[in-house]
Amino acid sequence: MTEHEHEEIEHERIEHRVVLRTDVAPDDATLVDDFTPELVDVGAHHLCPGCGEPIAIRSAVESIAELGAIERTISVFGIGCYTAFSNNLDVEVLQALHGRAPSLATGVKRMRPDALVLTVQGDGDMVNEGLQEVLHAAARGERITCVLLNNGVFGETGGHITSTTVLGQRTKNTLDGRDAERDGHPILISDLVASMGGAAYVARGAVNDAGNVARTRRMLTAAFECQERGDGFSFVEILTMCPTGWFVDTHDAPDYLADVIAGTHQVGVVKDTRGEAAS
């Protein structure tokens, strides 16, 4: 091909190129806002790519909107990576000390019994630092909903072992995997909470695929409805991805959750007393 022939072909390609206007949006354009729940600000958050916590939080606010409880929802956040997300939510958010969210939420609910009150905590915050808080709230049957975002590591402070880390799981300070003899066994927090007499609804969901996201959303709605009816304490544990803390590729994190994390913390409804109330 001669240089002249090449120039003619290139000129023809440019002549037929579709050039989009930049002063107006294309007719079929959509905005991020079109897919965002009304209670989530579209502004950027500071969580890592591949993190499952934004999906879990989105599911919670979608359930709140579905129940028509936007104006009377008060959430209490623990301390962890997800705390950065509190600025992106258009509901009331209170910040608790490490592990103390259930006690603060208890006080809010007792003063504002008409409010829908939930806590948002990670496994480090709830199970390591504040285990007694959630257990006593469950034992008393406090009419609050506690949401646990369980990724099996202290993500905010570097990705080291927590009380829910499964056996064999690598963390920043268990590079060869958690060992039962050296590190103890993981605490199955949903099962422990379910054993409390005041717990009315306890479930464990996940956000690693579309089916589990939908299932988790139904669990959250059931927990909030349990609170609204005054049945007692409700609890939803959500398994979330932390590819940074797990030392796995972002794309592999959902399968890692299914194969490793959910093998110990099995997804499903652990306790549901709604049938008992009806009988």
Report on the architecture of this protein.
The protein is an alpha/beta fold and 279 residues long. The chain has eleven helices and nine strands. The strands form two sheets. The protein has a seven-stranded mixed sheet with strand order 2-1-3-4-8-7-9, sandwiched between helices. The protein has a two-stranded antiparallel ribbon with strand order 5-6. A hairpin with a 5-residue loop joins strand 5 and strand 6 (160-161). Helix 4 packs across helix 5 (131-140). It is globular and about 85 Å long. The mean pLDDT is 91.
Helix % is 25-40%
Number of strands: 9
Number of helices: 11
- Our estimate of the beta-strand percent is 15-25%
**C-alpha end-to-end distance:** 86 Å
Q: How are strands sequenced across the largest beta sheet?
A: 2-1-3-4-8-7-9
What is the helix/strand order?
Answer: HHEEHEHHEEEHHEHEHHEH
Average pLDDT, rounded to a whole number, is 91
Q: Based on helices, strands and strand pairing, what is the structural class?
A: alpha/beta
Radius of gyration from the alpha-carbon trace, in angstroms: 23 Å
Poorly predicted runs of 5 or more residues: none
Overall 3D shape: globular
Keywords:
two-stranded antiparallel ribbon, 279 residues, alpha/beta, seven-stranded mixed sheet
